[in-house]
Amino acid sequence: MRRRAHPAMTFVGSTAGASAVEFALVLPVMLTLLVGMSEMAHAIDNWRKVTLLGRTVADLTSQGDSSDPIASTTMTDIMGASSAVLRPFGTANVKIVVSALGVDTTASVTSPRVCSSIATSNAKARVTGIASDLTIPVGFNTNGNRYVIAEVTMPYSPMVGASLVKFATGSGTITVSSVFPWPVRNGAIHNSKTSTPEVTMPGGAPCP
């Protein structure tokens, strides 16, 4: 007479449903990877566009216009380029500061001088004088040199995981920023000590 296997032994030896169990274990990991990759791609795209905006603003400003100082309407148009460059990201909280800088190695061998500056309405223009928080870039550190710098900051809101970001930062957003120095392409020469042209921001004065 054939003996019946003990139910526990039958359960141990059974392979029915093994695939379903394995899938249930792997699914959360797969979903986490998918969401993480999507979030990373979204964040990188935002960072890339902020970087592109900084470069665009610096490049356009360095070309100046027919006015000296550069016309306010020209700078408004240049800063308004953010809506096109950052699309599909919103621009309401984007802050842009553009400054005209001069290199005076007799005053500082590492930091440039802010000669004039302008900012969007939600940002603050730089104060004129030696900018101790900036370093003269390599290639610009020639006495009398003039260049412009565009600083762009934007809060990035993650598609997922905002609660974790809020726990870490207290705001639920991550600040994305870019700083772009750019040589002056077209401007006026105001200082007999240098042959380098400079662009003066609206309402500002040339470098001393």
UniProtKB/TrEMBL annotation:
Q: Which residues form the TadE-like domain?
A: 17-55
Full protein name = Pilus assembly protein
Q: Which organism is it from?
A: Lichenibacterium minor
Taxonomic placement: Bacteria, Pseudomonadati, Pseudomonadota, Alphaproteobacteria, Hyphomicrobiales
